[in-house]
Fold this sequence. Notes:
Distance between the termini: 148 Å
Strand content: under 5%
Amino acid sequence: MAGVVAAGAAAMAVSLVPGSAAGDSPEARTAPAPTATPTESPVAFTLAQAAADSGSPRDVLAGRPSALELRPDAQPRQAAADDEETAETADEQRKSAEPATEDDDSGEDKNGDDNGDEAAPAAAPAEETYPDNLDGWIREALDIMDEHDIPGTYEGIHRNIIRESSGDPNAINNWDINAQNGVPSKGLLQVIKPTFDAYHVEGTAHDQYDPVANIVAACNYAADRYGSMDNVNGPY
Length: 236
């Protein structure tokens, strides 16, 4: 194979020797080419050396680009690929270094979660307090009477309290017939023990001297006997 290549290279060398141009005589153009060995022809040596440097002799004779000629074009493409891979790696590293952020539309309350759409439970109404005096006792008694459907008004209760005890929750009658019978009238509305026990309202103190319990029991009795404490205008 090497001999064939050398012979081909020698033939090309002869065709390239000066003096074989179109201006030579016909005899010169048809004269047989002198036989030359690859080592005697400097042109063949040059082609052989070029073949060794740039690729196979077959590629050189055929005029095809050698592998060396293709490398300069391949190198930029490889460099571009390397640059792109480096850029992707740097981008991934940058993303991994960034702190994770929460989605504002996730619906979770950053203070609890998933508590953004839920309304806070309504606060329980504050328990009403009453002053510890005649006004407070009557108003508290009216609220309890309202829960138990016992009729009566502030004015009717207040009027009867002033007549019976002058507003003293510790008042006691020790001289009337009830006292003589051993059951004296006691409290704001002067209720005797049997009446208080019969008309006592659950939830109030079981004590005749307790101002609220006394008012509620007396009003419950008056409602049953007279329709309402408002209808009582004297001893009852």
